[in-house]
């Protein structure tokens, strides 16, 4: 199996506090959608924050394309090609949609190239084009999430990590977010998704990772994880996946 | 009518200088959440640098402005690295900076007192006591020049923040520090840069203040309440708000000073601060604080 990102037995937490994840591991293959599921407090978001450099890794390794990422700052990890969209979407409320997209291309020195890529994004996402001059803070939750996800594409990253993109959105809008995610994947962007809605997340993923109490319980093809009786019982409320 | 125009002109010219005095305070709070109580003492530091240049070398205060700004920017880099950076990740950072900058203000005051004594000083270029006359209205050249230079610097700062790459990074860090970091902004560097710019603005304001007001090391206690009023009225962290706040309060203070009495003029700022905090704590252009 080709590994794009390889996380081995990492331990991480906030400041000097207790470890939130301890012994978490996962393997990310290029071009696929990976979904991390687990109950509240399992450490799913913490794992993504540790990978992107927002939290320091106390033990274990994060290897990306064979390079160790431990100790790098978020801006340095972004330059390697890993983008992270946190739960709160990380938008600049008082900047317009276009300015937010410009910030998405902050690490690209060629301004004209950034503008070209922004035009491309606005072409693909008509809702953003219509609101290009509107402040991001005045848009609906779904529109904000669309902007946050579209913004990651400006730098053409290798991996986009999404922390609960469906949080607080209406079911119809949630499906739109998953459609955007699939489109990203179809374009060759590897997606690493944390999703509270395990059924929805796994149905839209190629690979599933089950996290509990800060540790990886197991990982495998999403369909296999979805069909596993333990997962059915623990995280899907005993529901059979259709 | 002439009297109203006269008061308006004086208020607006002075407001421009006060806007520059407050803009550094606002920028530093916006980007780093540092409530810099030492800002006015650093403005006085800039005024003394200018005073020294004027008295010892005969350099015009406005020509000394870039020198004072550059020296204060360098001091800003040192101060940030030595004092503020260490605690930047503390949960109580803003609260801690109030105490830190209070202590810093005392130290700057002591240092300036030791170097220059506590005598009142003022630089006195020819234009400081000259005026233009348009009919019955007189426009003091010193205040006019200081106001124009101040607003030009603020306009330059606004253009820099609006259109430059670093300006984008500063604005982004002001609005959402974590998001800026996730998009590749080195927020540590941006914090140092913003602090240096904040102090450069203090130095620049000091040069202009040196011929508009008389000053002495302890004068900063008088100014901090005035500047806080301006910045709080405009909205902490908003440069545009600071300019609007400074112009409004300066004009109102000028009317109060003329029609009611000079003693009551200063009260305008304190009263405004009191009312704003009661009625609209986020100020005119600030964001409403999130509920805990």
Detail the poorly predicted runs of chain A: none
Order of helices and strands of chain A: EEEHEEHEHHHHEHEHEEHH
Q: Into which percentage range does the β-strand content of chain A fall? A: 25-35%
CATH fold-level assignment of the largest domain in chain A: Rossmann fold
CATH superfamily of the largest domain in chain A: P-loop containing nucleotide triphosphate hydrolases
Give the terminus-to-terminus CA distance of chain B. Answer: 50 Å
Given as residue ranges, the uncertain stretches of chain B (5+ residues, pLDDT < 50) are none
Rg on CA atoms of chain B, Å: 19 Å
Q: Biggest β-sheet of chain B: count, sense, barrel? A: 2 strands, antiparallel
Please state roughly what percent of the residues of chain B sit in beta strands, choosing from under 5%, 5-15%, 15-25%, 25-35%, 35-45% or over 45%. Answer: under 5%
Provide a quick synopsis of the model.
The complex is a heterodimer of chains A (242) and B (292). Chain A is an alpha/beta fold and 242 residues long. In chain A, 36% of the residues lie in helices and 25% in strands.
Question: What does this 3D model show about the protein?
Answer:
Chain A has ten helices and ten strands. With 242 residues, chain A is α/β, with parallel strands linked by helices. Chain A has two domains: 157 residues, P-loop containing nucleotide triphosphate hydrolases (Rossmann fold, 3-Layer(aba) Sandwich); 64 residues, no CATH class. In chain A, the strands form two sheets. A six-stranded mixed sheet of chain A has the order 6-7-8-3-9-10, with helices on both faces. A four-stranded antiparallel sheet of chain A has the order 2-1-4-5, with helices on one face. In chain A, a hairpin with a 2-residue loop joins strand 9 and strand 10. In chain A, helix 3 packs parallel to helix 6 and helix 6 packs parallel to helix 7. The two termini of chain A are 29 Å apart. The model of chain A has no long low-confidence stretch (mean pLDDT 90). Chain B has 292 residues and is mainly α. Chain B has one domain. In chain B, 75% of the residues lie in helices and 3% in strands. Chain B contains eleven helices and two strands. In chain B, helix 9 crosses helix 11. Chain B is globular. The chains are: A alpha/beta (242), B mainly alpha (292). At the A-B interface, helix 2 and helix 3 of A face helix 6 and helix 7 of B.
